[in-house]
Design brief:
2% strand; 54% helix
Length: 351
């Protein structure tokens, strides 16, 4: 049975293979470490923005899987660096001969599988952010006024900090605040006729105004912030309501957060792709180095050529051999025939 993808390796190519693997392995360890750091950064960002993401949004699975994939790549790189360095010294390589095979299987099935899953999530999950942010921001705006309601008492502070930090206003723009009651009823004067008229004019009994919270104000504006009566063209001198970006943040928080998180996901996906490529090269190189050294009893600088390969036989032959071994293992042992009973001894005739 011929081996799969055999490669003849003379002395110098064997040594160069081990040296190149040592360098590639450290590059893989570096890429795995960077994937760990970036996944942790994305996970921290999602934790900070958890109030503005719908609980059903599956995007949080991406950094969690990427963390595991980065950890696996880091481990594979460290193992590869240790094994390739030890292969250059016949006295250090023997301990690696026993564990290198299982480690290669674990790195291929476990680490490679996690990287493929993380890459798939990096491509598929950013699309779920749109709906997740839409629902989450809508809920946050609706609870902005509930400063004394258990479970929502921090909604105002968090949303103000979000708008100030990310230079955004509302969900899709400043006019989103016109359609919700963002002033708590505690701070409304029930004796004020204007307040009563606004509440009675609304079908749902809400106090709606054409104004925005202070956190929508742009501090770089040359004039004091205008927060109320924004839809009235003559309410404020020298103010054009058609150009609110001169006074308020122009972008909605949905677009800002969507772009921010998708950029982080795309960078993470690119890093995972590079890590996946490096892991393939390291695992292939380690397999060829391992099988080549098996033919030399672990001595890399032995004279003569040796052959490295991926599998000792073709896939069809491997499956056939495994099937036969399974049949033999599960075949019931032949039952032993019961021992024949000795015939009864006849009595001797009396003398």
């Amino acid at each position: 049975m011929a081996p799969v993808l055999p490669l003849v390796l003379p002395l110098q190519p064997r040594i160069r293979l081990a040296q190149g693997l040592w360098l590639l392995s450290w590059l893989l360890a570096l890429a795995g470490g960077l994937a760990l750091l970036y996944s942790g950064h994305l996970l921290a960002q999602l934790w900070l923005l958890r109030t503005f993401l719908a609980p059903s949004c599956p995007f949080a699975a991406l950094p969690q899987v990427a963390l595991a994939a980065g950890l696996g790549a880091l481990g594979t790189g460290l193992v590869g660096a240790g094994a390739s360095r030890a292969s250059l010294d016949a006295s250090q390589y023997p301990p690696w001969r026993k564990v290198l095979g299982p480690l290669l299987v674990l790195g291929t099935a476990g680490g490679g599988g996690l990287l493929i899953l993380a890459l798939g999530l990096a491509l598929a999950l950013p699309g779920s952010l749109d709906a997740g942010l839409e629902d989450g921001l809508g809920t946050a705006l609706a609870h902005y006024k509930d400063t004394e309601v258990p479970g929502h008492c921090h909604a105002k502070r968090l949303l103000d900090e979000l708008q100030l930090r990310h230079h955004c206003c509302g969900r899709h723009g400043y006019k989103d605040w016109f359609g919700i009651q963002w002033v708590s009823s505690r701070y409304l004067d029930p004796n004020d006729q204007e307040v009563v008229d606004r509440i009675q004019s609304n079908v749902e009994g809400l106090y709606l105004i054409d104004g925005v919270p202070f956190s929508c104000c742009n501090p770089h504006s040359p004039r004091p912030c205008l927060q109320s009566r924004l839809s009235e063209p003559h309410a404020h001198p020298l103010f054009d309501p058609r150009q609110p970006n001169l006074n308020l943040w122009a972008q909605g928080c949905h677009g800002v957060l969507l772009g921010h998180l998708q950029d982080l996901a795309s960078v993470l996906g690119g890093g995972l792709a590079v890590t996946f490529l490096l892991q393939i090269l390291v695992l292939l190189g380690l397999r060829y180095l391992q099988t080549a050294l098996e033919g030399l009893e672990g001595v890399i600088d032995a004279e003569g050529d040796t052959q490295g390969y991926l599998f000792p036989s073709g896939l069809k032959d491997m499956l056939k051999t495994a099937w036969r071994q399974g049949e033999v293992a599960h075949r019931p042992a032949p039952e032993e025939a019961p021992p024949e009973e000795a015939p009864p001894e006849e009595g001797l005739p009396e003398a």
